Amino acid sequence: MAQFRPLHGFRDFPPERFAERAHVFATWRRVAARYGFQEYDGPPLEPLELYTRKSGAEIVEQLYAFVDKGGRDVAMRPEMTPTVARMVAEKASALRLPVRWFSIPQLFRYERAQRGRLREHFQLNCDLFGDASPAADAEVLALVIDVLRAFGLTSADVRVRLSDRRLLNALLAALGHPDERIPAIYAVLDKLERTPAEVSREKLREAGASDAEVDALLALVARTATEGAAALRPLLAEGEGAERLAALEQTLALVQALIGTDVAPWVRVDLTIVRGLAYYTGLVFEVFDAQGELRAVAGGGRYDNLLQALGGVDMPAIGFGWGDVVLTELLRDRGLMPTGVATLDWWVAADDDLAPARVRAVVGALRRAGERVEYALRAQKTKKQLEAAAKAGARHALVLRAAGAYAIDVASGERVATLDDAALDAALARLAEGGTTFTTLMRPEAATTNA
Ligand code: HAM
Q1: CB-count exposure of residue 307 (10 Å: 0-12, 13-18, 19+)
Q2: Tens digits of per-residue pLDDT, 393-435?
Q3: How far is CA 32 from CA 142, 148, 303, 357, in A?
């Protein structure tokens, strides 16, 4: 018989994996909510044209696209940004500005599956619409840093590397590069780190740059990496470039105020960050592990023209996408990923010969009070039931007897409480009132009556 396996680049999530995913999602949701972001979703299948219009060649090549039974060209969503841009544009006049929306969609890209890159992933998307100021940029960057911190990561583990496309364009103009050369230079910068220096130089020369221009550009990239934004100042004395540099410095100062600690260890200005997607217009950033061993953890930027292009509404926007794949690897590597699935609070066991109806009644009462409870579905010796309790990871077991009951700590086997029927009924009644747990009621000092 054929053995079925998931498609290459797709994942199963058995409970221990699902527990990791649940931890990631819960942390994302908690921090996004702290910044006032509200959750939304959209369709997983969209018209193909939503992506061919503005996303850029790389993502379009990776689309899971097909013709549906009605003859429509459709694609499984490879990213959320076009969907959210369309949704916000459609409701624009009714929304309070700035709009702060987040989502955790599953996305599909036909990529070469490799470490950190699969053919499906979940991606936190946080996007802020309707404000083009450094204050809006700072909100989004501070959110990124707070998500990192919420996972227990520090500035020694990760780095936010950022740049600004308008700033970069001004720098390239100041270095003497004509506009038509800019796309080729972006492509080289984007891959600079992963490409042998000679290949990058050759590509720049092919794009029309002289040897002196190539040297000057690569020297500036290197100097910025060590000196930060200060390295750019001599080239940007006035005009758009000077304004963008001032805005970037202001953004970083605002982030520092929001995160309540020095921003410098977290953030680095880096001219090799240009981002592959075609719609970015201003600030662009990516999060990397500090060792530079893994693929990008997250990436985003400002896209002030996309709502116009997809929905006919002039509204600036900034946001990011943060995948679960590299993040999960990083958290595991750093020992920051909680292990194990949710355990049971109680196992209810029946002493030999006890009527199963009594077990079910107690189990039902505990479950209605919110306890996580299991019991043996078939009659078994008490010893077997307690072995099953240990295997299930139950912390406590309640053993019901013909008269009364006792509670034990499953790991140690120690008896923590002994009750007569009246005391057990009283404890269940107290539990039903709320505000306590059965474990609290069964603490030796709290257990009401000793049989
Ligand atoms: P992106 O850089 O294509 O941006 O993806 C963002 C993040 O999604 C990456 O940094 C990575 O964590 C994750 N990711 C992307 N592709 C894969 C893959 N094949 N397997 C695993 N993880 C992956 C965007 O998608 C933009 N739409 C983000 C954005 C939102 N910009 C503004 N708002």
Answers
A1: buried
A2: 999 999 999 999 999 999 999 999 999 999 999 999 999 999 9
A3: 11, 12, 20, 46
Residue nearest to atom 9 of ligand 1 (CA): 298
pTM: 0.93
Report the 10 Å Cβ neighbour count for 286. Answer: 22
Whether 392 and 348 have beta carbons less than 8 Å apart is answered as no
Of 162, 184, 158, 167, nearest to 273 by C-alpha is 162
In whole angstroms, what is the distance from residue 406 CA to residue 449 CA?
A: 11
| Structure-token match 């950022």, residue found | 162
Q: How far is the centre of ligand 1, averaged over its atoms, from the C-alpha of 172 (Å)?
A: 27
Residues of the chain with pLDDT under 50: 448-451
What single string gives the DSSP state of each residue in 60-108? HHT--EEE-TTS-EEEE-S-SHHHHHHHHHHHGGGSPSSEEEEE--EEE
Query: Do you find a cis peptide bond into 183, omega within 30 degrees of 0?
Result: no
Residues with CB under 6 A from ligand 1: 79, 81, 109, 111, 117-118, 121, 123, 125, 127, 277, 296-301, 319-323, 325-326
Q: Are 258 and 142 in contact (CB under 8 A)?
A: yes
Number of H helices, E strands in the chain: 16, 17
The amino acid sitting at 114 is Q
Q: Phi and psi (nearest 5°) for 109?
A: -140, 130
C-alpha–C-alpha distance, residues 147 and 25, integer Å: 11
Distance CA 214, CA 202 (A): 9
